[in-house]
Design goal:
Number of strands: 11
Radius of gyration: 18 Å
CATH superfamily: SoxY domain
Helix content: 10-25%
CATH class: Mainly Beta
CATH architecture: Sandwich
Largest sheet: 6 strands, mixed
Number of helices: 3
Shape: globular
Distance between the termini: 39 Å
């Protein structure tokens, strides 16, 4: 690659990052706190690698995700084999119109998206591959906006830990 192409790519990456970073601030929280993956108050915050996929799926609503207990993520606390980890998401009837499931530490974190018919029971099951211990994030679209929940699954390899 020539020097001019590298400069152009660097400029484009930098110019595309500015609008995304400006959308990350929630209230008076700094960008560093927003993408840390922690939960603050009622806000449900996700890591930066997941935020980009969320923004593509839900647009500007991805800035306002509220932690909920109306969704239940059922998954093992400990997975002996990360090649096949069973997950299920259940919730109230008619609560959710769509949802996205992420495995934070995977190279491609988006594991699944699904849309539900109006009034359908929320009962989704899937199997994911996990390379190592990771947080699983579920973000769902409701009539009131986006809600989310998460769970940490420890992946062990053989008899040890990972």
């Amino acid at each position: 690659m020539n020097k001019q192409t590298n400069k152009r790519r660097h400029f484009l990456r930098a110019s595309l990052a500015v609008p995304l970073l400006s959308n990350l601030a929630v209230g008076n929280k700094s960008v560093a706190n927003t993408v840390s993956g922690s939960m603050v108050g009622d806000s449900f915050l996700v890591p930066e690698n997941i935020y980009h996929d969320l923004f593509e799926i839900y647009g500007g609503e991805a800035n306002n995700i509220v932690r909920t207990d109306k969704l239940t993520l059922k998954a093992p606390d400990l997975a002996e084999n990360g090649a096949v980890v069973g997950l299920s998401v259940v919730g109230e009837n008619g609560l959710v119109s769509s949802l996205a499931i992420f495995v934070a530490e995977n190279p491609k974190p988006l594991a699944s998206t699904c849309k539900l018919h109006e009034g359908a029971d929320l009962a989704v099951g899937l199997r994911v591959k996990m390379g190592r211990t990771s947080d699983i994030y579920v973000v769902a679209q409701t009539n009131d906006g986006l809600v989310g929940t998460k769970k940490t699954i420890k992946v062990t390899i053989g008899c040890g830990g990972g």
